[in-house]
Amino acid sequence: MFGAMRLIIVILLFCFVGGYAQPGSTLLKWASEGNAFYKVSSGAIVRVDLPESRETVIVSTDALRPVGHGRALPVRDFSFSADGKKVLIYTNTKRVWRYDTRGDYWVLDRGSRQLIQVGRSQPASSLLFAKFSPDGTKVAYCSQHNVYVEDLATGVSKCLTSTEGTPKLINGTFDWAYEEELDCRDGFRWSPDGKHIAYWQIDANQIKDYLMLNTTDSTYPFVVPVEYPVAGQSPSPYRIGVVDVVSGVNKWMNIPGDAHQTYLPRMEWAANSTELILQQLNRKQNESQLFLGDVATGGTTPIYDEKDSAYIDCKDVWQDGVIAGWDWISGGKEFLWVTEKDGWRHVYRVSRDGRKETLVTKGNYDVQGLSRIDEKGGWLYFMASPDNATQKYLYRTRLDGKVGPERLTPATETGTHEYDLSPDGRFALHTYSNANMDERQEMVGLPGHALLARAVSGASGGGKEAPAPGGGQGTGESGVAAGKKVEFFKIKTVDGVEMDGWMVKPVPFDPSKRYPVVFYVYGEPAAQTVLDEYGVGNNNLYTGDMAADGYIYLSVDNRGTPAPKGRAWRKSIYRQIGRINIRDQAMAAKEILKWPFVDSSRVAVWGWSGGGSSTLNLLFQYPEIYKTGISVAAVGNQLSYDNIYQERYMGLPKENAEDFVAGSPITYAKNLRGNLLYIHGTGDDNVHYQNAERLLNALIAAGKVFQFMAYPNRSHGIFEGDGTREHLARLYTDFLRRNCPGGGR
């Protein structure tokens, strides 16, 4: 929901665009020299040379047709060996919870044109995160909870993990909670010299299974177990193993601390083949320690420690939330690190022993993501928006921190920007939109931002997460009707809190009339809803045009949402989920209801996942404001959600269980006075269906009348099955129109 609430749009899009590759994946692959990139075009892999955008076919579709196959392999993702002579093709993909991270891999030798499948003895679509060895002679992969290496010359594969993997003893990848809340998926790394592989082992044997009941896929129902540690339960312990690829000898790293009470979200080779660098978080996730580990002895040395009175973000500080790689500079003598220690999210350069650090990005603003390190040129490229928390722009600053940031995005292009920069920072795939302009994609030259080519077809791939504050992609219209416009505003509450918001007014709009207002809400630390990007203001669960039907549609971002407004804004929600965010939303609504064109008798609110929880809390805690609510896949009781998310933001239940209770919708269900539609999928592995039934019991016990819809065996995104999205949209629209009718009065 929650840790992956930003993924909800990806989930909802899945059934329309065929799913997504693993996070961080892109079908634009920059050439190491920086003046060209590779992409998939019409099933082939082509090279595009810049600045002239000249295309050359590198791998034809004929070369991708295995012997005995009638058609070429569809390329979901690809990578080259270091010498460029071989290509690793990812195809026939399947989902693992959120992403298509398992599938089949094939290697094409570009010289001999030989195409061979890797891991042929493994089940179909069971390989994860396959990657070439540094010399290109081998491929390592994970399958069925073990790590394997295959010699490409002989075709022989061998299992490297010393402890046989099982669904509960997981080598080379992660359990449900690590994947969902720490974005940990790829769990093994080649050493730079190719002699060793370092990998995670996660032991979920002590984690209780949540038993989901599948009642639709066979005559007799059956259970689907998912290892799921709820708040208050200890996490799965971890180990880091380093295995010699030739001998198979395994060495376990000796990491201080109790593996049952800590997390290890990051591990990489430390710019050499003899040491690892690791990040460990304590159970409450408010202390981070970095260690250097000697792979020969297994010993580890602490080098960098950070504490926070609330919590430490370890995934959202990196570009697109993807934790991959470690940014070493100065020949391995220093690395870059992101921290909020001075009240803003900034980049520091830290010496290898952790004793010296230098602030690189200076100023009262948040770094929104790292885009590229050009050490040769002396530049760090990053995303930020110092003056407007709803937008995002490209900046660069000197790596020595001696020169302030320079904005590279043109001042005339207001809105939200994304950049995929070449290794030397000379070129970039630039994606740009704002709330009232459709997305535009182009190749540009930097630093001058000169246009090279528009709409680079096939350049961007899947795997990009993006919140869309209109809700999920569904069957409704896009809502871009004549005269419709998204307006941004700021609202200050009685508590002195100023919040950003957007609004779409009815078309036509008569200021002398009063209109119903529909609030779209999320409100938790995993997502920001007020963003100046295309799609904001659309409600794709509404079958029709809300503006034409006479609704004011709007959203505001409360304290605790991940807006680039500084640490204090984001972390004020610590131990306050379900309270401070709900009060901010309600107090903002009170100010909005003072507007002369708003009808205070027709006020609706809706949200999904974390937004579903906020919807319930608003409807229950402030029934005098909100008259109608539509809540989808909500956590009714915070003590029923997973430990990593809830304990990060709320503390440990054994220390402050009263905060969990005080922020849970089920606590206030007895206060329902308005109209409630509650929706949940019975096959939701994220926010379990148990939340729905416990909430229903509380409402029933209080004698409350409400409407409920269960979608059989649907997951958190509620998209599986024929007609599901259409049905959900019609249900949503009908309930809203009946209980909060549109039109001015």
Fold topology:
Layout: H1 8-17, E1 29-30, E2 36-41, E3 44-49, E4 54-59, E5 77-80, E6 86-96, E7 99-109, E8 115-118, E9 127-132, E10 138-143, E11 146-151, E12 157-159, E13 169-171, H2 176-182, E14 188-190, E15 196-203, E16 209-214, E17 222-227, E18 238-244, E19 250-252, E20 262-269, E21 275-282, E22 287-294, E23 300-307, E24 328-329, E25 334-339, E26 346-351, E27 357-359, E28 367-374, E29 379-384, E30 393-398, E31 406-407, E32 416-421, E33 427-434, E34 437-445, E35 450-454, E36 486-492, E37 498-504, E38 515-520, E39 552-556, H3 567-571, H4 580-592, E40 598-608, H5 610-621, E41 628-632, H6 643-650, H7 653-662, E42 675-681, H8 690-701, E43 707-711, H9 724-739
Parallel strand pairs: 38-39, 38-40, 40-41, 41-42, 42-43
Antiparallel strand pairs: 1-2, 2-3, 3-4, 5-6, 6-7, 7-8, 7-9, 9-10, 10-11, 11-12, 13-15, 14-15, 15-18, 16-17, 18-19, 20-21, 21-22, 22-23, 24-25, 25-26, 26-27, 28-29, 29-30, 30-31, 32-33, 33-34, 34-35, 36-37, 37-39
Helix pairs in contact: 4-5
